[in-house]
Amino acid sequence: MKKLKTSQIKIFFLLLFFSIPFYYYGSDSEEITIPLTNPGEPGLVSINHYKGSIFVNGYSGNSVIIAASYRNPENNNGMKLISNSAIKLNATEKENVVIISTNSYRRTIDLSISVPRNFSLKLSTDNNGVIEIRDISGELELNNNNGDVKLLNVSGSAIVSTIDGDIYADYVKVDPDQPMAFSTIEGKIDLYFPVDADICLKMKTEYGEIYSDFNINLEKRKTNVHKHKNNGSTKVSLDDWTHGQINKGGPEYLIKSLNGNIYIRKKK
Q: Are the C-beta atoms of 244 and 219 separated by less than 8 Å?
């Protein structure tokens, strides 16, 4: 029998290795695809998440694709966690309205979702995550109690709030008829709008400053008059909101931070 050379033996074992099917038990990620009742038409995705991040990306498809994964746990002396509980990922769809739920109350679950670009979003997460939206044109209602909210290359309108986190928004186009609101308690607000946007601003920060590279036409600060019912005295004070107008003015954008700066920037 002819003796095999060392190089031939290596090739033999490599071929054997790659011909064996692989099985992974205890997967920590799941994915589902949701067909839409009316493909091509606007819709809504709604999520009330307890613990984890939500990433949404607009694309040119006609389905909603949801990927859910457990946040990687800390290394335990080199041992790998073999999960004994599957991710409970559920979604219901009716007339292009998709409602998504998970069992994130137990472990941190991150969601990565692809939706048609003309969809609206109603998203909420409470702990240990961020909300990031990219390439969406629609109405956004976003709440993150403990984390940042980031909007990239978006159009339309938004109502965004967080308790402990920054807000960043980069708008390529705004809805000329819809108001917006951005509010945080502990964080900065950094907003980019098209140079030709027509906006009325209502802004306030208690422990920060307001900056802008727009030529904002500021209104004279309003005077508030309050009469005391019991002793008949009158208290006069200046309104602590800053009002202004960009270009021709338009719907009101309320922008408020308790402890952080506010930046209103021109999109280059």
A: yes
With 50 as the cut, is the pLDDT of residue 268 above it?
yes
Q: Is residue 20 part of a domain?
A: no
Percentage of the residues of the chain whose pLDDT score is greater than 90: 72
Residue 118's alpha-carbon distances to 37, 206, 229, in angstroms, are 15, 36, 53
Cα–Cα distance, 51 to 24 (Å, whole number): 26
Residue 234 · residue 182 · CB < 8 Å: no
* Residue 55 belongs to domain spanning: 26-266
Give the chain's count of helices (H) and strands (E): 1, 22
Residue 107 per-residue DSSP state: S
Long-range contacts of 95-99 (CB under 8 A, 24+ apart): 95/37, 95/38, 96/36, 96/37, 96/38, 96/41, 96/42, 96/43, 96/44, 97/43, 97/44, 97/46, 98/34, 98/36, 98/43, 98/44, 98/45, 98/46, 98/64, 99/46, 99/47
Averaged pLDDT score across all residues of the chain: 87
Q: Is 184 domain-assigned?
A: yes
Task: Say how many domains are in the chain.
Answer: 1
Give the helix ranges, DSSP H, for the chain. 6-19
Nearest CA to 82 out of 22, 29, 27, 23 is that of 27
Is residue 177 in a domain?
A: yes
Write down how long the chain is.
Answer: 268
CATH number at residue 108: 2.160.20
